[in-house]
Amino acid sequence: MQQQVMACFGGCVPEGEGGGPYLSHHEAKVARLRDKELTKLLNKQHKEDLKRLKILLLGTGESGKSTITKQMKIIHINGYSFAERLEKIKDIIRNVRESLLSMVGAMHHLNIPLENAESRASADFILDQAARQDTETSEEFWDHCEKLWSDCGVQKCYDRSHEYQLIDCAKYFLDKIGEIRSLNYAPSDQDILRCRAITTSIQHIEFDVPDAGQSVKFRVYDVGGQQGERKKWIQVFDNVVAILYLGDTSCFDQTLREDTSKSRLIESLEIFEQVWNNSKSRLIESLEIFEQVWNNRFLRPVSILLFLNKIDILAEKIAKGRSIKDLLAQHPGVFPDYDSCPVSSNERIEFMDAFPGGTEQTTKRRSRSSSRTDINPEVVKTAVYIKNLFTRIVRGELSINKTIQPHPKEWHQNHSCEYFYTCAVDTNNVKKVLEGCRTLIIRKHLESVILSCGTSGRNGQQRAPEVIPEMTISGHRYAVVTAIVLAIEEQ
Ligand SMILES: Nc1nc2c(ncn2[C@@H]2O[C@H](COP(=O)(O)OP(=O)(O)OP(=O)(O)O)[C@@H](O)[C@H]2O)c(=O)[nH]1
Ligand SMILES: [Mg+2]
């Protein structure tokens, strides 16, 4: 893609003919020189780009992609400065306002009355804020927020949040209004991780990770996952080394949020109606998009690291009596039977190992992990069942998106899919998972480098990618790869 852009630049020198404006000889010369410089610059940039391992974060809206990039900043870069923390306050205020707006709107639809007559004035005050984009707040605003959140009617509405659209961090921030409204408030790492802001443009972060005495350079792309944002994904498919696909395990009882940037802040009850009527299951959407990514011809050699995310919210939902069985019953014949889905002891341990809150011993010693009593077996079963849905898609045993023609097994032989249970707001969990991913990504990348050399003949039909000799991979592995590449080229 980069090359296409450069080709375009190369072909754009105006010559005064062919429809372009007439340029003097001197002007044309200057333009040509400028174009040459630009092409050189782009070439250099392109080479620099190729030295970094390019990772893509994909997944549907609100699955946790940006939260993972925030964790990368905390773990691999220097975290958040004081000024950056203060910047986040605006988003947190929007989160508080949007949460209360969603609940007040939903109470109307769900026929849940406010318990306290005095809360009416607070509800009206918040509804009046619906069209506001700014983040100016007053003591009056915070008083109304606190009053509303303490109303039992609002709490009842919160318990039914799967029936409408409510951001995941609603309770987290509403429970700490007292702290947020203080003039001295500076968001903690956890506040930043919990804070929700929709992604509407392609963003990336870069960092270096030490590996066997050398540093491995990464560039991670974060894209928007809402419906309208997904058409931009293809722009970043070039030279991808691995995909981190975020699948939300807790969304089985939720429907899609209406896809418009307007819904970031529900501007009016009219938009609320749209949201209300959008009834496509979030889990089915996530499986469908995963199936598209797995079978996408541009991503054929790219391995997927599947993050089965939000396992903490999954546990909260099961504790409230929610069950994936309701969704399965709405789609008879599509999904495998839930009750007869087996959970092996290894699968149980894998999940318990990842689940937040394990003590040092439980996270370090596998045998103790299996004896954790704080996790409801139904949580494990649901997580394993959802994991199996994704892995069935990988094996071609389940197809959700009927417009996709599944490829035969051989088509997939150059990429694989590995899964991890994650809680993206838990730094310990993400740190552990990222360590595992790093090794896998480097291994997969080396395999693909070797493979691409293996398919390139000495007589030149296809040269080994330019990137190989310049790759900054850990010392000894780099040496091994170079040796293998040379050996293949010698043949
Ligand atoms: N409790 C909990 N919250 C999570 C977890 N992962 C993400 N969240 C929250 O879910 C919300 C959405 O996360 P984002 O990272 O913004 O989701 P996204 O995939 O980037 O969404 P788009 O930008 O719309 O594509 C945020 O409020 C996060 O804090 C998790 O594992 N547990
Ligand atoms: Mg995002």
Automatic annotation (TrEMBL):
Alphabetical keyword list: Cell membrane, GTP-binding, Magnesium, Membrane, Metal-binding, Nucleotide-binding, Transducer
SMART domains associated with the record: G_alpha
Gene3D superfamilies from the UniProt entry: P-loop containing nucleotide triphosphate hydrolases (3.40.50.300)
GO molecular function terms attached to this record: G protein-coupled receptor binding; G-protein beta/gamma-subunit complex binding; GTP binding; GTPase activity; metal ion binding
Binding site for GTP: 62-67, 193-199, 222-226, 309-312
GO cellular component: cytoplasm; heterotrimeric G-protein complex
UniProt entry tagged with the keyword Ligase: no
Residues noted as binding Mg(2+) in the record, renumbered to the chain: S66, T199
InterPro entries: Gprotein_alpha_S, Gprotein_alpha_su, GproteinA_insert, P-loop_NTPase
One Gene Ontology term from the biological process aspect of the record: sensory perception of chemical stimulus
Compartment annotation: Cell membrane
Family the UniProt entry places it in: Belongs to the G-alpha family. G(s) subfamily.
Quaternary structure, from the entry: G proteins are composed of 3 units; alpha, beta and gamma. The alpha chain contains the guanine nucleotide binding site.
Function: Guanine nucleotide-binding proteins (G proteins) function as transducers in numerous signaling pathways controlled by G protein-coupled receptors (GPCRs).
Protein name: Guanine nucleotide-binding protein G(s) subunit alpha
Originating organism: Elysia crispata
